[in-house]
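Appendix C: a fully annotated inverse folding record. The material below is reproduced so that readers can follow the format used throughout the book. The structure is listed first as tokens, followed by the designed sequence.
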């Protein structure tokens, strides 16, 4: 079994993963304790976190599962379009989970096929993961979780974690040699725009800017954190950008498939002018945290960003939004005009 675990690890590295580890499924049991701790600290998050308890008891869903293969791949090799920096979160720009054009997506399929070729039953969930991904990577010794809640290797936090449950009882762990966060460092907490990150190793996802610009924020004129959202239209990188352990770690010398073409069509003014066919069938496929029925949210978020850092050239776009086909966009445009007195 040790030989089989090493074969799996070696194949992962051959395919370009930075690290690979294997843990037994019962090592995820204490993930439930972590969820309880989060809810105890921020009780309002109970509804949000309750959906993740099944991640701690994988055999309830997959009775045949015995181990979890965890792999890490970096995305800091990709070039960030300058005009999208601080507007769209980097993890979403380089999201390979459902992008079949990306090498990373295809490599994931190859890796899964390789394990199946070894006679292993395999299952994954590409969008949100088959288990608590950061906790599984921590258990495998692939890195550490820092005070901003993100998972880090020696090279920083700009990474994607993938995991597969398998029907073989295997184990392969590393021992990370990474300097922990200083107890005196609170740069990420100080930088958090909405104070969602209120203390180390915890957060309120319901007030996180990344959540407000994607899953939540459906009543933007009355959203109490709309000013904290600043220029962000989709996602937020502030707590990672402010972390000294990420300083000078971004490489950015490769182009992500099709990103340049899509990014050339994105600006605050262009978002407001976008037709809904493009929003639903092009932009939503790339940035899928906003579902098709809610793509109007792109326009609302763009108007909110215009309000937060208003420029005179935004005036025409805001007035154009008064004629939008969606009520929520018209409502936000009317709010902006009154708020800005334009």
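Designed amino acids, in order:
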């Amino acid at each position: 079994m040790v030989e089989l675990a090493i074969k799996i690890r070696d194949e992962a590295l051959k395919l370009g993963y930075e690290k690979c580890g294997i843990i037994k499924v019962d090592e995820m049991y204490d993930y439930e304790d972590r969820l309880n701790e989060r809810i105890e600290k921020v009780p309002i998050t109970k509804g949000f976190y309750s959906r993740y308890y099944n991640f701690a008891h994988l055999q309830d869903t997959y009775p045949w599962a015995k181990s979890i293969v965890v792999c890490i791949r970096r995305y800091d090799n990709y070039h960030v379009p300058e005009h999208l920096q601080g507007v769209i979160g980097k993890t979403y720009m380089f999201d390979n989970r459902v992008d079949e054009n990306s090498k990373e997506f295809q490599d994931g399929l190859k890796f899964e096929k390789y394990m199946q070729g070894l006679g292993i039953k395999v299952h994954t969930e590409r969008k949100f993961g088959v288990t608590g991904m950061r906790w599984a990577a921590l258990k495998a010794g692939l890195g550490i979780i820092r005070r901003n809640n993100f998972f880090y290797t020696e090279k920083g936090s700009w990474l994607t974690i993938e995991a597969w449950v398998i029907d073989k009882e295997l184990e392969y762990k590393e021992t990370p040699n990474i300097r922990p966060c200083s107890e005196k460092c609170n740069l990420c907490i100080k930088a958090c725009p909405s104070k969602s990150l209120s203390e180390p190793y915890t957060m309120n996802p319901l007030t996180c800017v990344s959540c407000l610009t994607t899953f939540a924020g459906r009543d933007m004129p009355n959203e109490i954190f709309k000013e904290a959202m600043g220029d962000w239209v989709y996602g937020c990188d502030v707590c990672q950008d402010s972390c000294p352990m990420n300083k000078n770690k971004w490489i950015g010398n490769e182009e992500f498939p099709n990103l340049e073409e899509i990014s050339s069509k994105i600006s605050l003014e262009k978002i407001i002018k976008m037709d809904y066919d493009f929003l639903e069938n092009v932009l939503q496929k790339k940035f899928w945290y906003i579902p098709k029925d809610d793509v109007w949210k792109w326009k609302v978020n763009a108007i909110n960003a215009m309000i937060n850092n208003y420029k005179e050239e935004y005036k025409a776009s805001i007035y154009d939004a008064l004629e939008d086909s969606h009520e929520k966009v018209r409502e936000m445009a009317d709010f902006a005009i009154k708020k800005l007195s334009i």
